[in-house]
Amino acid sequence: MSLPLRGSICGCAGSPPVSNPTVLFNVLGLLAGSLTTLSFMPQMLRIWRRRSADDLSYGALALFITGISLWVLYGAALHSFPIMITNAVTLALNLSILALKILHDRARARRHSSE
Q: Are 90 and 37 in contact (CB under 8 A)?
């Protein structure tokens, strides 16, 4: 189902007309998804620099990764490129965060067992 979009982008006088609302919605979806995806970069960089992911719980990561995986499948079912690509990148970032958490937790456990 597509929403009817007539006239200009904002309805303002002098703004460019929208000839293909699908393009506008795809751009909007890519922008929204990109900002959401980029929001995980500071967390990943913090884990990398501190070599610790103690602040993150495995349960929260597991639930979030499962949810994002379902968003990728949902996007594929709808043939929605913005939903698929932005959630696939978010999934990759969060799998990286999970991998860093596992690595750092194991390293900390080895250090504590050798003391």
A: yes
Q: How far is CA 2 from CA 35, 37, 61, 77, 83, in A?
A: 24, 25, 34, 16, 16
Averaged over 94-109, what is the pLDDT?
93
18 confidence band (pLDDT: 50, 70, 90): low
pLDDT, residue 51, reads: 84
From residue 75, how far is each of 3, 40, 81, 87 by CA, in Å? 18, 20, 7, 9
Where do runs of H (alpha helix) occur along 4-114?
21-38, 41-50, 58-78, 81-113
Domain ranges for the chain? 33-113
Whole-number Cα distances in Å, 98 to 15, 29, 86? 45, 26, 18
Average pLDDT value for residue range 1-7: 46
Which fold, 33-113? Monooxygenase (1.20.1280)
Q: What is the pTM of this model?
A: 0.72
Please list the residues that pair with 91 across neighbouring strands. none
